[in-house]
Amino acid sequence: MAAITYDVVVIGAGPVGENIADRVVQGGLTAAIVERELVGGECSYWACMPTKVLLRSGAALRAARQLPGAREAVTGELDVAAVLRRRDSFASDWKDDGQVSWLGQAGIRLHRGQGRISSARVVEVTGEDGTTTTLTARHAVVVATGSGALVPDLPGLRESAPWTSRAAASASTVPARLAIIGGGVVASEMATAFTGLGSSVTVLARDGVLPTAEPFVGELVTEALRDAGATVRLGAEAAAVERDADGTVRITLTDGEQVEADELLVAIGRTPNTEDLGLDAVGLKPGAWLTVDDTLRVVGEDGAPVGGGWLYAAGDVNHRVLLTHQGKYQARAVGDVIVARAEGEPVEGGRWGRHAATADERAVPQVIFTEPEVASVGLTAAAAEAAGLRIRVVDYDLSATAGSALHAEGYRGDARMVVDEDRKVIVGFTLAGPDVAELLHAATIAVAGEVPLDRLWHAVPAFPTVSEVWLRLLEAYGR
Description:
Blueprint: E1 2-11, H1 15-26, E2 31-35, H2 41-45, H3 48-65, H4 80-90, H5 97-106, E3 109-112, E4 114-119, E5 122-126, E6 132-143, E7 147-149, H6 165-169, E8 177-181, H7 185-196, E9 200-205, H8 215-227, E10 231-234, E11 238-243, E12 249-253, E13 258-261, E14 263-266, E15 270-272, E16 311-313, H9 324-342, H10 359-362, E17 365-368, E18 374-378, H11 381-386, E19 391-397, H12 402-407, E20 414-420, E21 425-432, H13 440-448, H14 453-456, H15 469-477
Parallel strand pairs: 1-2, 1-6, 2-3, 6-16, 8-9, 8-14, 9-10
Antiparallel strand pairs: 4-5, 5-6, 7-15, 11-12, 12-13, 17-18, 18-21, 19-20, 20-21
Protein name: Dihydrolipoamide dehydrogenase
Binding site for NAD(+): 182-189, 269
Domain Pyridine nucleotide-disulphide oxidoreductase dimerisation: 364-470
């Protein structure tokens, strides 16, 4: 059994783990990273990157068909094989050579295998050949193992071999009929993608489409899916599933009706990848989300840092925000605070401290790559009211700006600004419409920076662009 000591040991080599290790090394400490699968993690191979490739070609084709002059140049349909080849290239054909090479260049040591915490600051790594390497961390162990798809205990579901987000993102063929259980982000994006790729898609959305977004978002996306040929069953709930000998999947709904498909995608949520990490060795429950303090140290039921503060958790696994960019934001804070504590420097916590991931609470940006595209940051109106804020909601039809009329014929979309009336700042902003993702960062700055409305009047949007909506929203609000 080999034994090696580092300053920091990170379990999980996805984008979050990579950024933590890199930040630590840049701060002058040594770091090792443990990974049981591919270096680069879910985002690189089964989520962010490959799924957006599956969506992008269809979005570009729709955009061309919305412009007179361009639509006449479109003489064929989507080349599905070409889309899948491009997806494969972005996923590096599910090989991590490039990512492993980057780790070496960054001065980060990689240990392949299953990492388990065996005692304070000690991680045992079991390789594929059964050998064990013991890693001891002088200062910190960080759990960055992410999350996996949640598959519910539905009669016959597991036996029917359903797709999860991984299978959908890496599919080598497009099923003629695809049923999707769920109506959230993954369900909506994959319904958009596979409808565009030629599948006959049926969405079983018990709680509606994108139910946690502003209500107009779900309405627009549902309408667009139906216009594209998908069947969207709002309120439909699966009761049982079976796969026939010929491969047909039969989903029985709670009302007794049956839906048939060639493949079934289950997209109802996520579960933490903490089952086999040795958490019980430090008094934590295996398979549970990890609770963290403001500097992302793992805390126990009493609220105190585990073992005095050497264990951290970043990314999906701490259940704060399940988004890659927010996990990387946490990673920068974690790396910096570990270095600060190791070197005896002051910890900068609080509302704007560099060692606290405070944006997780009030300024989380998200883009949903459906048709239409959805971009949001901060609180919905409902969430703001639930938080006890006195708010005013301002809505505007995106199609009424000159920029949108130029952008696409028949442009449809909406914008919403949620204003904290006591402080006169924006606490939430949502856009739904073609290509609105690139408008989001301006809203993120306004929300995170708590820019007063009277100052935003001096941030003049260029004409003619869709971003003119900023001026229209301010005019609707009034000085």
